[in-house]
Design goal:
alpha/beta; 8-stranded parallel barrel; globular
Length: about 300
């Protein structure tokens, strides 16, 4: 299992510094979210020129605000800047965001993702897109010099989205999905869908909050506050319910080095190919202890 770090948010220089440190520490990958701040794809274009080895990824960029042609052009630009080290993570986002903030329809989101991937996939492989669907039209070819094909992972939680990720992408990237749910639901569902299509085993990227600490009660309280919103968003709530977790703090890997190590090993044993740690406590000595433990898995 490969080990990566989640870059979080911050100034562009902060994100560059985080990637430089992750590469220097020997981590396999460095991922950025697209929320309501710095543009992740733009930041990774800069990082790709400054950091020469580590894999770069998004986890994740919402699809609705960016037409597949725009998304593909940006992704291929990151690929050119990073010499082909970029993986594009995309997701639907949430109804409250897409309808309430952007004013787009969130009707039949799986249909939207299918049509989006049918357009995006060829473009990221240097081929023309020719899709006329119910939710979008994409008929064009892109030419981004020095770019290489860009693999896509999809934020897929339910069975239908996992099947789409197996058939039309390289795999899935999960968040707030605990080890039991990964082992009993995520990995077998996407694996069976890929096998049925005669496709290679898909990539499964799991991201979870991590903190090695002598005060786990305080750390879980901190996690509960930071990640509170994920306990009420329907898609994540469904994964927490599958896990038997009351809230996001219950799937955070928190505790002594031995306890956190055991949690990461459970994720690995579930069949995950990549674990991405969200280091949510930057205070010392928690940050150093967490980073030291993560390096043991490299």
């Amino acid at each position: 299992m490969r080990i990566g770090l989640f870059g979080g948010e911050g100034s562009l220089q902060t994100l560059v510094d985080g990637a430089v440190a992750a590469e220097a520490d020997g981590f396999d990958s460095y991922w950025l979210p697209q929320i309501f701040g710095t543009d992740a794809l733009s930041a990774l274009t800069v990082i790709g020129r400054e950091v020469p080895r580590i894999e770069l990824g998004t986890a994740v960029v919402p699809t609705y605000p960016r037409h597949p042609l725009v998304m593909a052009a940006q992704a291929l630009t990151v690929s050119a800047a990073s010499a082909g080290r970029f993986t594009l993570g995309i997701g639907l986002s949430h109804q409250m965001v897409i309808e309430g903030m952007f004013g787009y329809s969130f009707e039949k989101p799986a249909r939207h993702m299918r049509e989006y991937l049918e357009a995006l996939g060829p473009l990221l492989s240097g081929e023309p897109a020719d899709v006329t669907g119910e939710t979008l039209t994409a008929r064009a070819t892109l030419d981004v010099p020095d770019s290489l094909p860009v693999p896509v992972v999809v934020a897929a939680l339910g069975p239908r989205m996992l099947q789409l990720a197996a058939r039309l992408a390289a795999g899935t990237v999960t968040w707030m999905t605990g080890p039991r749910t990964l082992a009993e639901h995520t990995v077998p569902t996407i694996g069976a869908a890929a096998s049925a299509e005669g496709l290679p085993s898909p990539r499964v990227v799991s991201a979870l909050p991590v903190a090695v600490t002598s005060d786990p009660v305080a750390a879980r309280e901190r996690a509960a506050k930071i990640f509170q919103v994920y306990g009420i968003l329907p898609s994540y709530r469904a994964m927490l319910d599958r896990e038997g977790a009351a809230g996001p703090a219950d799937v955070a890997l928190v505790g002594s080095a031995a306890e956190v190590r055991a949690g990461i090993e459970r994720v690995r044993d579930a069949g995950v190919t990549d674990f991405v740690a969200v280091e949510f406590d930057a205070h010392e000595p928690v940050h150093s202890a967490t980073r030291d433990l993560l390096r043991e898995f490299l």
